Amino acid sequence: MEPVFDPFPPAAVPGSPLAGVDTPALLLDLDAFERNLDRMQAAADAAGVALRPHAKAHKCPAVALAQLARGAVGVCCQKASEALPFLRAGVRDVHVSNELATPDKARALARWARHARLSVCVDDALQVQALAEATREAGTALGVLVEIDIGQGRCGVAGAAGVLRLLEQLAPHAQLEFRGLQAYQGGLQHLRGRAERREQALRAAARAADVVAALQARGLRCATVTGGGTGSVEFDLESGVYTELQPGSYAFMDRDYADNEPGTRLRFEHALFVATRVMSTAAGTHAVVDAGLKSMSLESGLPRAWPPGAPWHYTQANDEHGLLTAAARDAAGAGVAAAPPPPPALGSLLRLVPGHCDPTFNLHDEVVAFRGDRVEAVWPVTARGYSR
Amino acid sequence: MEPVFDPFPPAAVPGSPLAGVDTPALLLDLDAFERNLDRMQAAADAAGVALRPHAKAHKCPAVALAQLARGAVGVCCQKASEALPFLRAGVRDVHVSNELATPDKARALARWARHARLSVCVDDALQVQALAEATREAGTALGVLVEIDIGQGRCGVAGAAGVLRLLEQLAPHAQLEFRGLQAYQGGLQHLRGRAERREQALRAAARAADVVAALQARGLRCATVTGGGTGSVEFDLESGVYTELQPGSYAFMDRDYADNEPGTRLRFEHALFVATRVMSTAAGTHAVVDAGLKSMSLESGLPRAWPPGAPWHYTQANDEHGLLTAAARDAAGAGVAAAPPPPPALGSLLRLVPGHCDPTFNLHDEVVAFRGDRVEAVWPVTARGYSR
Question: What domains lie within chain A, and their CATH numbers?
Answer without folding.
Answer: 18-24+269-380 (2.40.37.20), 30-251 (3.20.20.10)
